[in-house]
């Protein structure tokens, strides 16, 4: 059994398309089918064919043709008045849609996990500023779970996370690689040891850690089978670093985060074995909403920068 046409489908079969309506309006204004065809950039035979098709579709005569030109019938004049309203409404619709596109292309809402927000995004956003100087960027920073929630709530167009996998409901692509490192203050006993720290010893040692929900914590928990022992759980990379520098204990953070402290010997990198600490950094977006406009441009910059 064939599907029954919907009211809108039936309406589409009975209402002429916009080009045909524009042609009728042009005939009324110019008094010539040939000049109307020229104005719309079509041939006169094509214009005549469109008018005849419109008359068949509506079931009424619209245009009287003679050697002196073309003029609307009484019915054609009435239809032309209606056509003007439809074309004006279509033009208003197009102008509104264009305004939405312009507004979209002038702002970008991004959410990023702390490591990416602090150490990678600034460079990407500077490059985006050169590409799109008029784009205003709103950046929200938090842990990876925070980023996921903002995306799923449609509060941002693009997110950056540090977890092991792409969360449900999101699509994504790897934009960088990273590695977690174990570091301690120079006064910590581990700073003088030569033997690597094994996985079981790391799991038994109280550590200064990021909170649950962060990509850093997710990677470490997976590497240690969920056995990481928190000495402190802190919600920012800066706080974790400060606690480790003070000598409170070992910390586990991205090597992007501790580079300056390692160079200045405020922290010492500890060799560990049997602990997989490599991870991917990903750009993510809602399934079915691949980035467009400035979000697409930012994504491109992350992959080439």
TrEMBL record:
SUPFAM superfamilies: Periplasmic binding protein-like II (SSF53850), Winged helix' DNA-binding domain (SSF46785)
Boundaries of every HTH lysR-type domain copy: 16-73
Alphabetical keyword list: DNA-binding, Transcription, Transcription regulation
GO molecular function: DNA-binding transcription factor activity; transcription cis-regulatory region binding
Keyword DNA-binding recorded: yes
PROSITE patterns membership: HTH_LYSR
InterPro entries registered for this protein in UniProt: LysR_HTH_N, LysR_subst-bd, WH-like_DNA-bd_sf, WH_DNA-bd_sf
A Pfam family: HTH_1
Similarity comment: Belongs to the LysR transcriptional regulatory family.
Name this polypeptide is given: LysR family transcriptional regulator
Annotated organism of origin: Streptomyces mesophilus
């Amino acid at each position: 059994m064939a599907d029954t046409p919907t009211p809108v489908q039936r309406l589409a079969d009975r209402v002429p398309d916009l080009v045909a309506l524009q042609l009728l309006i042009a005939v009324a204004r110019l008094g010539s089918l040939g000049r109307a065809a020229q104005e719309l950039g079509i041939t006169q035979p094509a214009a005549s064919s469109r008018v005849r098709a419109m008359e068949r579709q509506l079931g009424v005569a619209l245009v009287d043709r003679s050697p002196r030109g073309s003029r609307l019938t009484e019915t054609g004049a009435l239809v032309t008045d209606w056509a003007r309203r439809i074309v004006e409404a279509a033009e208003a619709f197009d102008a509104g849609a264009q305004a939405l596109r312009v507004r979209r292309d002038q702002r970008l809402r991004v959410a990023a996990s702390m490591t990416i927000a602090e150490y990678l995004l600034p460079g990407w956003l500077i490059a985006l500023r050169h590409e799109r100087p008029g784009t205003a960027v709103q950046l929200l920073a938090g842990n990876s779970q925070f980023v996921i929630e903002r995306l799923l709530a449609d509060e941002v167009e693009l997110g950056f996370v540090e977890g092991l996998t792409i969360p449900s409901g999101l699509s994504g692509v790897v934009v960088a690689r990273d590695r977690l490192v174990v570091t301690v203050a120079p006064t910590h006993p581990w700073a003088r040891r030569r033997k690597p720290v094994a996985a079981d010893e790391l799991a038994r040692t109280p550590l200064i850690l990021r909170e649950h929900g962060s990509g850093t914590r997710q990677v470490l928990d997976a590497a240690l089978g969920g056995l990481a022992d928190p000495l402190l759980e802190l919600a920012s990379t800066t706080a974790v670093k400060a606690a480790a520098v003070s000598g409170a204990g070992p910390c586990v953070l991205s090597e992007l985060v501790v580079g300056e402290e390692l160079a200045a010997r405020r922290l010492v990198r500890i060799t560990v074995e049997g602990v997989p600490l490599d991870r991917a950094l990903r750009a993510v977006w809602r399934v079915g909403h691949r980035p467009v406009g400035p979000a697409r441009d930012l994504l491109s910059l992350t992959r080439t920068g």
